[in-house]
Hints:
Elements: E1 8-12, E2 18-25, E3 30-36, E4 39-45, E5 51-58, E6 62-63, H1 67-74, E7 86-97, E8 101-110, E9 113-124, E10 130-139, E11 158-170
Antiparallel strand pairs: 1-4, 1-11, 2-3, 2-11, 3-6, 4-5, 5-7, 7-8, 8-9, 9-10, 10-11
Amino acid sequence: MTVAVETGLWQLDATASTVGIRHKTMWGLVTVKGGFGALNGTGEVRPDGSAVGTLTFDVASLDTGNAKRDTHLRSADFFDADHHPEITFAARSAELRDGDQVHVVGQLTVRGISRPLSLTARLTDGDATGLTLDTEFSVDRDQFGLGWNQLGMIRGRTTVTAALRFVRTTG
Length: 171
C-alpha cells in the first residue's frame, strides 16, 4: 500500500489514539499492562514529504487497573510525576519508506532525562484529512532513572505500543 500524505499541520486526535505499556514483573511471572489516558500531539508534513512533531503523555493519566500500583508509578521511585508531569517524544524526522513503513528518529524524555529513539511505525488508513500510525518498540527504563527494583522483581525492557490518529488542520 502506498499512501500520499498531505503537507501541512496535523493534530493528534486523542480520543482516537492509544499509548500503552507492558512490562514483566514478579521475576517475569506477571505482565503489567497500562495506558496513558491524556495524550497530546502535533506534527507537520513538509513539502519534501518528511515530517516532524511532538507527542506528550500526562504521567498522572497512567492507568494499570490497580490504584495502589498507579500511585507508586507516579511516585519518585518511578516517574516522579510531581517534578516531571509529562513524557515527551520529539520526532526530529519521519520519512515514509517501503510503502507504509515510516522511519522515525527522535528523542524520548522521561523524568527529565532525554535519550535518542528510532522506531518504525506503520501508516494505516491515511488520506487527505487523517492518518493513523501504529508502532511497538521497547525501552530500557534504567536509562531514564526508573531503576527501582525491589528484590530484583522487575527485569527486562518495557514495551510501548501506540496507535496515533492525526487529523489535518491546515494546508
